[in-house]
Amino acid sequence: MRFAQLVKAHGRRYRHTVIALDGVTHMASRITSDVTIEYRSVLFDKRKGLANLPLFRATLSAIAPDTLITYNWGAIEWALANRFGKRRRHVHIEDGFGPEEADRQLLRRIWVRRLALSGRHTTIALPSRVLQKLALETWRLPASHVRYVPNGIDCERFWVDVASRSARSGPLVFGTLATLRKEKNLARLITLFDAIAARVPQNSPRLLIVGDGPERAALESLARRTSYSEQIQFAGGTQKPEEWYPQMDIFALTSDTEQMPFSVLEAMAAGLPVVSTAVGDVASLVSAPNAPMIVNPADDDAYCRAATTLLGDRALRVELGLANQRKAHQEFDEKLMATRYSELFG
Fold this sequence. Notes:
Elements: H1 2-10, E1 16-19, E2 37-40, H2 53-63, E3 67-71, H3 76-83, E4 89-93, H4 107-116, E5 122-126, H5 129-137, E6 146-148, H6 155-158, H7 162-166, E7 173-177, H8 186-199, E8 206-210, H9 216-224, E9 232-236, E10 250-253, H10 262-269, E11 274-277, H11 282-285, E12 294-295, H12 300-311, H13 314-331, H14 334-345
Parallel strand pairs: 1-2, 3-4, 4-5, 5-6, 7-8, 7-10, 8-9, 10-11, 11-12
Helix pairs in contact: 1-14, 2-3, 3-4, 8-12, 10-13
């Protein structure tokens, strides 16, 4: 998503060659046809690990990029190929971790990152302060090479009139937008919603889950077993998230691991208050008035208290929503992000 944003922002200034290591290129639909972009397939066996380096070096020689951009652990061998081959300007972007590294860094990966990303031609771009601290203190990368580059969104696309939304009638909607993967821990959200709804039965709140993914069947099964199953809606995946935030009154996140989630930024731009587990940079992303609603992931009661407080206080929802909306526009607009990446790529 961010790559598509950057292509759009920079237009014809760059030509692009994309290698999708998992073969998935559906984000191509977000890129306009007037941009010079080529998609390449590289047939390799992930199980061979470092034995793939000669192939990767040969591929880089054939493409001859001015800048190599690698994303996350899955592309680390390409960083190694550049580190120990003909060295090109290299920007490595690390967004976060899967469930295998949610609680602790794997020692082998620490050493490989330290080796692959410490070259003088490499800059490491990180969208969260938590990742920045990790890169400096755990991976021990050179401080001069590490850059904090927060994610950005099209704030105008997600703008909602907060006052008008708060004045509408009907049950309040507790909503989230996420890929339904294990690390998002939406089972926790469904279980907590059951407890939250029991605390405010007079409000008949609804839970709206927008997104799709491998956990959907299990989550739907769990929802059917709750006391308030009729108040839970699975909306499925969407290419237009901006159409869903206006239907929510409170945005909810219950992830086990995050860094700088786009969904929180989008919810902020839409003028929503956020109740969330304190993962990654979420506590510092939201506005200062919203910060008390970001709670320890192990404290279910604190999460329920925060949610029920928001459900019962219209004025507080408006206050936090407006504060979040202002902060999103001031600090996390995609134009700011594009400018920051231009400095790295240039």
